[in-house]
Amino acid sequence: MPPKITTSYKTLVETAEREVETIPTEKAIALAGRDDTVLVDIRDIRELQRDGKVPGAFHAPRGMLEFWIDPASPYHKPVFAQDKKYVFFCAGGLRSALAAKTAQDMGLKPVAHIAGGFGAWKKAGGPVTAPEEPPKK
What we know:
Elements: H1 9-19, E1 21-23, H2 25-31, E2 37-41, H3 45-51, E3 58-59, H4 65-69, E4 85-89, H5 94-106, E5 111-114, H6 117-123
Parallel strand pairs: 1-5, 2-3, 2-4, 4-5
């Protein structure tokens, strides 16, 4: 018998949305490049290569986030030890809501995530570095 899932991803995202700040794309675009803010791109590397990047955003793959945030981890990244606001984003805003909640639960503050993610960023005309050329075989 397959396991019974008792909490849906929708419920997890809704809970995260209630507990972390969700900022509109226009506000996120205005925060880009500021010294007091770190934009954190949690998309998979293949998404960055395919769709492009937000200039200046720090790439932290979702699978490594907890390890990179925790200063006790051998994988800790110093970018997460700064006194700044951390604004997470993914492709559409679901994974980043969960990532921001996890970061906040770990003690990283202040955190937020971008409503609509990278897709909304591009649609609003936010700056984007073109996708990388795929490696030649």
